[in-house]
Amino acid sequence: MRCLRIQYLHIMNLQLPYCFCFFLLLQLPFSTNGQAYKNVSLGTSLTAASGDLPWTSPSGEFAFGFQQVGDAGYLLAIWFNKIPERTIVWSANRNNLAQRGSTVQLTADGQLVLNNQSGTRIWTRPELGGSGADYAAMLDTGNFMLAGQAGANLWQSFDQPTDTLLPTQNLNLGGELIAPYLEKNYSDGRFKLILQDDGNLVMHTTAYPLTTSIFAYWTTQSSIGSGHQLIFNQSGYMYVVATNGTILNPVFSNSVPSQDLYLRATIDYDGVFRQYVYPKTASGGKRWAMNWTTLPNSIPSNICLAIRYSAGSGACGFNSYCTLGDDQRPSCRCPPGYTFSDHDDERKGCKKTFISQDCDHPSQEIDSFEFRDMPNTNFPYADYEVFSPVDEDWCRQSCLSDCYCDVATFIDGKCWKKRGPLLNGVTDPSLRDKALMKVRIANWTAGSSAKKRDPSALIVTGSVLLGSSIFLIVLSLLGIYVFFTRWNRQKRKVIPQHHVIRDMNLQNFTYNELETATGGFDEELGRGAFGPVYKGVLGDEDKQIIAVKKLEKMAGEGETEFKTEVKVIGRTNHKNLVQLVGFCNEGQHRLLVYEYMSSGSLSNYIFGDSRPNWHRRMQIAFGITMLTGTADNDTMDCRTHIITSIPAFVFIENRLRPP
Ligand SMILES: *[C@@H]1O[C@H](CO)[C@@H](O)[C@H](O)[C@H]1NC(C)=O
Ligand SMILES: *[C@@H]1O[C@H](CO)[C@@H](O)[C@H](O)[C@H]1NC(C)=O
Ligand SMILES: *[C@@H]1O[C@H](CO)[C@@H](O)[C@H](O)[C@H]1NC(C)=O
Ligand SMILES: *[C@@H]1O[C@H](CO)[C@@H](O)[C@H](O)[C@H]1NC(C)=O
Ligand SMILES: *[C@@H]1O[C@H](CO)[C@@H](O)[C@H](O)[C@H]1NC(C)=O
Ligand SMILES: *[C@@H]1O[C@H](CO)[C@@H](O)[C@H](O)[C@H]1NC(C)=O
Ligand SMILES: *[C@@H]1O[C@H](CO)[C@@H](O)[C@H](O)[C@H]1NC(C)=O
After folding, report:
1. What atom in ligand 4 is closest to the CA of residue 253?
2. Which of 6, 180, 310, 510 has its CA 20 to 30 A from that of 163?
3. What are the residue boundaries of the Protein kinase domain, all occurrences included (predicted)?
4. Which ligand has the shortest distance to the CA of 118?
C-alpha cells in the first residue's frame, strides 16, 4: 500500500510520456493487489498539489480530483484517467481556479465542499440546504454522484455538464454546455449549446465575457414544442426525444463500439460540437490512432458560414476571417494588411498594420492606398453603403476615395462598402463575393516594435539607397578625395562653441545638447559605414525634429577637416532636399544634424502610381542629369534600410521633397 502510494506520487509529477509508461507498469499491481474500489465516505478530503490520489471509478477509467491548469491553478475536475492526456470531461470551478493547498471534502454532514487555501468555500453541492449525502461515488460512466439514504441520488455531475457529454449522460430541458475559452483554457468561452425550455436544441454565440445568448447558429427547429430530452446513448447515437420517447431529431448518428473506445461529445472552443473516440487499449485501437479522433458530421458542418449576425465578431475575432481547413476545422486568419492583436489568442481578432486613411485629406491620400483582392471572401453585416449596378473599377474608386471604407466587396454588379471592425469574415469556395481589402501601400514590417514612429521615412531611405549604389560609389570617391586634399592642406583650429557658420546658417551644437535631444542616442534610425543615425528633438521653441549622424570613423580627424567636411556636405543642399541644420565638433565627437521630415506625402510621391522613374528621382535629388542608359526602378527592396557610405548619408538625409 505504502509502496503503491509512492509510485503514484511519482506519476503525478512526471511528464506525460513517462507518466504513461509508468502507468502501464502499474496496471498489474493496481488490478491484482491494488486498493479495492471504495465509496467516498464522509470526512474524506483531497488537497490540491499534495499528491493525494484522486477518487477513481471502480474500473479506474474516470477520476475525480484536482487537475493543474498551467501555472494558473487547479480545476476540481473529472477526467479520463487511463489515457495519458487525462482529458477533462467536467469541472466545478472553471472560472475560478483553486490554488495549491485548496481542498475538496465530503464533510461529516454530507456536503461536497471546495475550500481555498484559507478555508473559504468557493463551491459546494448539494446547493440548497436539506439532507446531506451518505457517501459519494465516482462511477464508471464518468458520473460523480452524491448519494443519500438508500442510494438516492442527491446530486450528480451529469446534471451540471460543462462542455462535454458522455454516453448515457442526457441533457434535460434548460440544460446547457458552454464551450471553453481555448483548448487548454477551460473558463467560459464564446459559444454554447442549450436544450431550450421549448424543446429546441440550439447552438448560440454568447455575449462574451457574459454567457447570455446572442445568435443561434444551429437549431433543431422541428423539436420545438415537443422536444423533451437530448439522449446520448451507449452506442454513440445522440438525438432529441419527445416525452413519449419518440425520436424527433437525430443529432449524431455515429455507431461506436463502446467496449473498445472511449467516447465523448464536446462543444469545442471554436464553437463546433464534435464526437471524439479514443481506443481503450492499443489492440482495441487497431483502426484508431492512440489519440482522440473526431467522428464524422460535426455540428455545424461549416461554422465559418454559419455565424453571420450584426452583433459579435462571427466565428473568429473582429477583422479576421474564418476558413475551413482540410481537417474540417475552422482556422482564423488576418486579411492582408492586418495582424493578430494577440498572437497567443487568435480569436481576439486582428488589427491594422498601417495608419488609416486621413479623413481630413482623403483625396491627398488616394495614392497611398491599394487593394488586395480576396476571392471567395465576404464580411457580412459590416457594410454601410451598397451600389448597383456598377462595375468593379467603380467600386474600387469609390472605396479608395472614402476614408470610412476599409474593404469593398463586389459581386454581380453590386458593390458593398464596409467599415471596421469587420464582422463575420469568411473565405469559402461557395462564396462568389470578391473582397477588396484597402491597405496603405508603404508597408513597414521590420523588426522594431516600439520605435516605428516614422516608418515611411525609413522605407524611403532604404529603397533609395539600394537603388543608388553606383551613384554612391562615385560620390564616395569624390568625398574621400575632398577629404584627403583638405586634410593635407589645413591646420587644426578650435571652433568656438555655439558658433553659427553665418554664411551657411549652420549651428554648432554641444555634444550634451545632442545627447539630450536624442534622449541619450536612443532611437536609432539606421547605421552606415561612418556610424549610426539617431532621431531627436531640439529643445527650441519649434521642437524641430532632427536626425543626428554620429561620424565614428571621423573621430580623431582635425577640427578644420571636419569643418570643411561640414561645408562640403552643407553645399550639397538643394531646394528639393532636406537641410543640414548643424553639427557638433567636440573632442572625439563628430556629429551632423539634419532636418528630419515626416514624409507621408513624400513616400506617396516616390512610391505612388504617379511616382517619377528612378532616373528622374535622382535628377530631382541632385538637380542635375547624371545617369544615362537603363536604370532599374523595380528591384528595390523597400524594407531594407542599410546605410552604406557617407555620401549615402547625405543622400538619405537629404530626402526628396515633393516638387
Ligand atoms: C457504496 O455504498 C453503497 C451504499 O452504502 C453500497 O451499496 C455499495 O456496496 C458501496 N460500494 C462499495 C464498493 O463499497
Ligand atoms: C479565499 O477566498 C476568499 C473569498 O473569495 C478570499 O477573500 C481569500 O483571499 C481567498 N484566500 C486565498 C488564500 O486565496
Ligand atoms: C483564460 O482566458 C481568459 C480570457 O483571456 C483569461 O482571463 C484567463 O486568465 C485565462 N485562463 C487561464 C488559465 O489561462
Ligand atoms: C442508440 O440509439 C440508436 C438509434 O436509436 C439505436 O439504434 C441503438 O440501438 C441505441 N443503442 C443503445 C445501446 O441503446
Ligand atoms: C409521441 O410524441 C410526438 C410529439 O409529441 C407525437 O408526434 C407522436 O405521435 C407521439 N407518439 C406516440 C406513439 O405517442
Ligand atoms: C494527438 O492529437 C493532438 C491534437 O490533435 C496532437 O497535437 C498530438 O500530437 C496527437 N498525439 C499523438 C501521439 O499523435
Ligand atoms: C506588410 O507585409 C507583411 C509581411 O510581408 C504582410 O503580412 C502584411 O499583410 C503587409 N501589409 C500590407 C499593408 O500590405
Report:
1. 4
2. 310
3. 519-659
4. 2
DSSP H or E segment with residue 62: strand 62-69
Give per-residue pLDDT as tens, 406-442: 999 999 999 999 999 999 999 999 999 999 999 998 6
456-466 mean pLDDT:
45
| Type and span of the H or E element at 434 | strand 434-440
In the three-class reduction of DSSP (H, G, I as helix; E, B as strand; rest coil), residue 472 is classed as helix
Answer yes or no: are the C-beta atoms of 558 and 490 closer than 8 Å: yes
pLDDT at residue 271 is higher than 90: yes
Please tell me the pTM assigned to this model: 0.67
Q: Which of 35, 37, 38, 39 to mutate to test the pocket of ligand 1 (most atoms within 8 A of CB)?
A: 39
Index of the ligand 3 atom closest to the CA of residue 209? 4
How close is the Cα of 43 to the center of ligand 1, in Å? 16
Ligand 5 pocket residue status of 568, Cβ below 6 Å: no
CA distance 330 to 226: 33
All 3 cell numbers of residue 113? 465542499
What does the alpha-carbon distance between residue 223 and residue 62 come to, in Å, rounded to a whole number?
33
Q: Is the CB of 234 under 6 A from ligand 6?
A: no
Tell me the pLDDT tens digit for each residue of 303-314. 999 999 999 999
Instruction: State the fold for domain 499-654.
Output: Phosphorylase Kinase; domain 1 (3.30.200)
Judge whether residue 14 has pLDDT over 70.
no
User: Matching CATH topology for 36-160 and 341-440?
Assistant: no
Domain ranges of the chain: 1-34, 36-160, 165-301, 341-440, 499-654
State whether residue 9 is helix, strand or coil.
Answer: helix
